[in-house]
UniProtKB/TrEMBL annotation, chain A:
Compartments in which it is found: Cell membrane
Name under which the protein is recorded: ABC transporter permease subunit
Similarity comment: family membership: Belongs to the binding-protein-dependent transport system permease family.
Organism, scientific name: Micromonospora carbonacea
Membrane-spanning segments: 20-42, 111-134, 155-181, 193-220, 254-272, 292-314, 343-362, 400-421, 442-467, 487-505, 558-578
UniProt entry tagged with the keyword Membrane: yes
Pfam families reported for this sequence: BPD_transp_1
Any one Gene Ontology cellular component term annotated for this protein: plasma membrane
UniProtKB/TrEMBL annotation, chain B:
Keywords: Signal
Any one biological process term the GO annotation gives: peptide transport
InterPro entries: Peptide/Ni-bd, SBP_5, SBP_5_dom
Originating species: Micromonospora carbonacea
Span of domain Solute-binding protein family: 82-419
Keyword Lipoprotein set for record: no
Protein name listed in UniProt: ABC transporter substrate-binding protein
UniProt keyword annotation of Flavoprotein present: no
Length: 588, 507
């Protein structure tokens, strides 16, 4: 990749790369589909049994009945004949019939896809709005050359740490039940889209806004801004142009953050009773009902690829020929002093978390006292008790280390993997797109098949899908970096690949990837916990923050403190990470 | 350069225009008002249809809950068979029953005849996955004349009229049975409501069937929404989006307005099953120690929020005859003391399983864990989704399981449950119980034809089973149904088979 110094060879390179990407996409998609087709054979759980259960929960699993199911579905023919049969039907618009319901799969799956896709578009609107709000301050001050201090992004961190399912429960209760402004559930018209789109878009918007706010100061630091200002361009023009410059780097994040919601919004779909693709795929996966599962996976693969292409086209449009002709100015962060408050915030969060952990560790997190159920916070129980009368402070304190440890490890591994794959550039683009839309639950099911239920399995499953944002980000930033003029200068001065990597490429990518990882830390905690029902992760009653949130979710309204504690702790962790990173970096 | 934003806008807007899809067949926001004025009931059901309402699947209960389909017989509140499409029946000899049909019409306009009954029952008998209610019996059905049906069984079947009340054996018109083996109850039943539209797994519309033999239903129709999430169901009820919502989770029940909360004792019993086949609970004294340590009544006020009864045995208050026929349990093993438990388990951990499908079970498992640990056991939980752990359960890989089970299955007769769960050859024998006196007691109950005697023998079998300590009943669940105060005539059925019938209406 470092060889293309002449524009002719660049063009040849680009042609070759395009082929590379196309092949990568097909290989990645095909690999995923084959893996899904093998699920029942990998999982060592008899599909006849799971299908029978899905059809009739109280049915006795007699050998005769299982044999009947097996014969009816032709399970003895093995996975590959099934796959071939399914693929053979696709050109005719026939995606097979569901093993459970016996009905044609295609209408069901496309209907669910349409629902989820529409919801995703709603979430996209919310995401963009929130992202704009989050980065509005930086945009306003920057365009007027008044950006004196770096924003720590604590606001974005707080919003990004809010669990989607909790937000969904809250919105459904407040706006659906109490105020009655919107339907509390169902999918009957544009009105029923508002609440779920908000629940999904708020944290995504904060995440993207956080990244944008992180990249904008660098754009405002570029020489053209001063020139334009002196020439009398309005701040609006300057802001717009800076946005164009930075959005190109953030745009790929929409794929794993927003587009992935088509298949990955199971919790919100459940709470709002939306007949979406996430639930359909989950039900099919649990019942090992292959035809709908394969069809859903195929649609997600196609969606991921299409979205990837669209994003690529948008980036090209935004950056223009500069990207192609290696004439992009480098986008390097300004050395803005950190705000003094950032250090304070970090210190405060660290102190609060520390106090929480110490106080919690002195208490018993497992003691069940059914008489002390759902007690409000008091001197005896500073954060109240949960539905089994366990002390929430104790559970938070004992869970802190385990939660943060696993989440940090998973995030670190994902970020490194993402960075490496992102550097591989074109070859991994297809894989990134395909894996971006894969729901974590499906990854979890595939992992349990191999690792069995364990903490290790949960970490693996999350790593399997969590690297995509970093890979997409690294790839995009590297592409821009490679298109800078000074990189060419460096090369012509005889810089080797290692030097380029160390002095130019990594410094350009690392801070942004770090910021991304930090913003995603709370999500990682929640995704880890969301695999609990597959037996992945710590088994109850071991306290773990994600579990605390999900096991107390039914009590949101009855005893809000049961979720306020864990949610607050998660926010503290997120803010600490963001502000800690902010103040840490500015000292370098 | 100026065209850039426009291009982006177009690119973003295009898919949005292409896909403005919502659930097909929705009518927008004014349906609520229309439904009300037309006297239609809006119902939220919990379990979405899996096989397009085929009576041979789980969906059968929907058909009976909404009074779409009827069998030859029905069950009354005490679980006895009462006339439905058959107005009377007699047992000619131990294996032959004769049913006299009443005059009734199918929802597609055709008459209910002996031929159509034979056709319906033959299809059930020959179904690829045979309905559970026919798992231990083969029916031979013949038409004697146009309104007389003879049903014979290979071996004597004393509960045949109870069996025929099962929603899986509902009588549908000839039109319902397609050549590919699928069965559609849409417009083919005989009940007071007919299905007019089924939209995927989310909605169904039912209209009153004016030709019903039992008179016109008071409600003009039913709009069904399936809401799988319990909290969402409670929310829909509280927001006034539905008139009836079934199965409100105990965690949400107290949020419901007091006069919309109706509780019914359910035939569901939650218990702790101990694995007698392998692991630490092969030792009878350890089982006894576990039984004495575990106290289900601690769960009633807490986890179940009062919506349960402390366990009295396998059968709770919903089985009306159980309490006064209960047999004292004798001959139990002597419990191991805490010290003995520790020495006998010798460092082995007790693997306690629970599944997440019912929210209360994992919570119960945690309480049970603490109770067992007090008695000297070392406990490790394994909590997963049911289908993820079922093969392991059947293979006996756990020492104990917190289990929720319906004690009166399709037949409305308790023997089917006892036979599958506790007999040595039972297919759902998670406890791995092999006990000759238990087998004997269940077999003898199964053969008994006289109802009262049969019930007595069932209770004897219960005592035999409890003697082995293979199962420790914890609580008998109660079901909370959300019923708006503007609705009257909702059926509160412990067997969860009926909900709406002819008399249900909006005030």
């Amino acid at each position: 990749m470092s060889s293309g110094t002449l524009s002719g060879s660049i063009a040849a390179d680009a042609r070759r790369a395009r082929w590379f990407v196309a092949v990568g996409r097909v290989v990645a998609g095909a690999a995923l589909l084959v893996t899904v087709a093998l699920l029942p054979w990998l999982s060592r759980t008899d599909p006849a049994l799971t299908v029978l259960r899905a059809r009739s929960a109280d049915q006795d699993p007699t050998p005769a009945r299982l044999a009947a199911v097996r014969e009816q579905l032709g399970l003895d023919e093995g996975p590959f004949s099934h796959l071939a049969h399914w693929l053979g039907g696709l050109p005719r618009g026939d995606a097979g019939i569901s093993w459970v319901s016996g009905e044609p799969v295609l209408p069901q799956v496309t209907a669910a896809f349409a629902v989820s896709f529409t919801l995703m578009l709603g979430a996209l609107v919310v995401t963009i709005a929130v992202a704009v709000l989050v980065s509005a301050r930086t945009l306003y001050l920057g365009s007027r050359q008044r950006l004196r201090r770096e924003s720590a992004g604590t606001g974005a961190a707080v919003l990004a740490a809010l669990p989607k399912f909790l937000l969904a429960s809250l919105l459904a209760t407040v706006f659906g039940v109490w105020l009655g402004w919107f339907p509390s559930s169902g999918w009957t018209g544009p009105g029923s889209m508002v609440l779920p789109a908000l629940a999904l878009g708020l944290s995504s918007g904060a995440m993207i806004g956080g990244l944008l706010g992180h990249a904008l100061p660098a754009a405002f630091h570029e020489p053209w801004v001063r020139t334009w200002r002196l020439c009398g361009f309005s701040p609006g023009r300057i802001a717009w142009h800076a946005l164009r410059r930075t959005v190109a780097g953030v745009l790929p994040q929409f794929l794993p953050t927003v587009v992935a919601l088509v298949g990955g919004a199971v919790a919100v779909e459940k709470i709002f009773n939306i007949p979406g693709l996430g639930r359909l795929a989950l039900d099919a996966a649990l019942a090992q009902d292959l035809p709908p599962l394969q069809t859903a996976t195929l649609l997600l693969v196609l969606l991921g690829t299409a979205a990837g292409l669209l994003i690529q086209a948008l980036r090209r449009t935004l950056l223009g020929p500069a990207l192609r002709d290696a004439a992009l100015p480098a986008l390097h962060p300004a050395a803005l002093p950190r705000r003094r408050s950032t250090g304070w915030v970090a210190g405060l969060c660290a102190f609060a978390l520390f106090a929480l952990v110490i106080a919690g560790l002195l208490r018993d997190p497992l003691h069940v006292d059914t008489a002390a159920r759902l007690l409000v916070p008091s001197a005896a129980h500073p954060l109240g008790t949960d539905a089994l009368g366990r002390d929430l402070l104790a559970r938070l304190g004992h869970g802190a280390l385990r939660t943060a440890g696993v989440a940090l490890a998973v995030t670190a591994v994902s970020a490194v993997v993402g960075l490496l794959l992102g550097m591989a550039g074109r070859a991994s683009a297809g894989l990134t797109e395909v894996m971006s839309t894969l729901p974590a639950v499906l990854a979890g099911l595939l992992t349990t098949a191999v690792t069995g239920p364990s903490v290790w399995g949960a970490a693996c499953a999350v790593c399997l899908v969590a690297w995509t944002p970093y890979a997409a980000q690294a790839a995009a930033l590297l592409e821009e970096e490679r298109a800078t003029g000074y990189l060419l200068a460096s090369i012509s001065l005889g810089a080797g690949p290692i030097h380029l990597l160390r002095r130019h490429l990594l410094p350009a990518v690392l801070p942004a990837v770090l910021r991304n990882a930090v913003l995603r830390l709370p999500t990682t905690v929640l995704v880890l916990a969301s695999l609990g029902f597959l037996g992945l992760g710590e088994q109850p009653p071991t306290p773990e923050w994600g579990r605390l949130l999900s096991e107390n979710q039914p009590y949101v309204e009855l005893a809000p403190w049961t979720v306020l504690g864990p949610a607050g702790a998660l926010v503290l962790l997120a803010v600490l990470a963001v502000s800690g990173m902010g103040s840490g970096r500015s000292r370098l | 350069m100026r065209s850039v934003p426009r291009r982006i806008v177009v690119a973003l807007a295009l898919p949005m225009l292409l896909s403005g899809c919502f659930a097909p067949g929705d009518g927008g926001s004014n349906t609520d008002a229309q439904a009300r004025s037309a006297g239609r009931l809006r119902v939220a059901l919990a379990v979405p249809p899996v096989q397009a309402l085929s009576p041979y699947s789980n969906d059968a209960t929907v058909l009976s809950k909404l009074s779409v389909v009827e069998g030859l017989t029905a069950l009354d509140a005490d679980g006895a068979a009462v006339p439905a499409l058959a107005k009377s029946w007699i047992r000619k000899n131990p294996t032959l029953w004769v049913f006299e049909l009443r005059k009734a019409t199918f929802q597609d306009g055709t008459e209910v005849t002996a031929e159509s009954v034979v056709n319906a029952l033959d299809h059930a008998n020959a179904a690829k996955t045979k309905p559970r209610v026919l798992s231990d019996v083969t029916l031979t059905v013949k038409a004697e004349d146009s309104d007389t049906v003879m049903v014979s069984t290979k071996t004597a079947d004393p509960v045949l009229p109870l069996r025929l009340a099962s929603p899986a054996l509902g009588i549908l018109s000839v039109k319902a049975y397609a050549s590919d083996g699928t069965v559609s109850p849409v417009g083919t039943g005989t009940g007071p409501f007919k299905i007019t539209k089924l939209i995927g797994k989310t909605k169904a519309a039912l209209d009153r069937f004016d030709g019903y033999w039992g008179g016109k239903a008071k409600a003009s129709g039913i709009d069904v929404t399936w809401i799988a999430d319990g909290t969402a169901r409670a929310n829909a009820m509280r927001a006034g989006e539905v008139d009836i919502a079934e199965w409100i989770p105990t965690a949400q029940a107290n949020l419901l307005d007091k006069n919309t909360r109706r509780e019914v004792p359910s035939v569901r019993t939650d218990s702790l099953i101990l694995n007698t086949r392998s692991g630490i609970f092969t030792d009878e004294s350890l089982r006894r120690a576990a039984r004495e340590a575990v106290n289900g009544s601690a769960l009633v006020g807490s986890i179940f929020g009062g919506y349960a009864d402390p366990a009295q045995g396998l059968f709770g208050p919903a089985v009306s005859w159980a309490a006064h026929k209960r047999v004292e349990v004798t001959g139990r093993a002597v419990a191991a003391t805490t010290a003995e438990v520790e020495s006998k388990t010798n460092g082995r951990t007790l693997r306690l399983a629970a599944y997440t499908n019912r929210a209360e079970l994992p919570e119960a498992a945690t309480v049970v864990q603490q109770q067992l640990e007090k008695a000297g056991f070392t406990v490790q939980q394994d909590v997963r989704e049911y289908t993820q752990m079922e093969p392991d359960l059947l293979a006996g890989k756990y020492d104990a399981l917190v289990f929720s089970r319906v004690t009166l299955l399709d037949t409305g007769d308790a023997v089917a449950y006892l036979a599958s769960d506790f007999m040595s050859n039972g297919v759902y024998n998670i406890a791995g119980l092999k006990d000759s006196s238990v087998d004997q007691a269940i077999t003898s109950a199964a053969e008994e034809g006289d109802t009262a005697q049969r019930q007595q023998k069932i209770m004897q079998a219960e005592a035999e089973i409890l003697r082995t300590d293979a199962i420790v009943p914890l609580v008998h669940e109660k079901v909370v149904q959300g019923v708006s105060s503007s609705v009257e005539g909702v059926l509160l059925d412990p067997r969860e088979r009926s909900l709406i019938n002819v008399g249900t209406q909006l005030k």
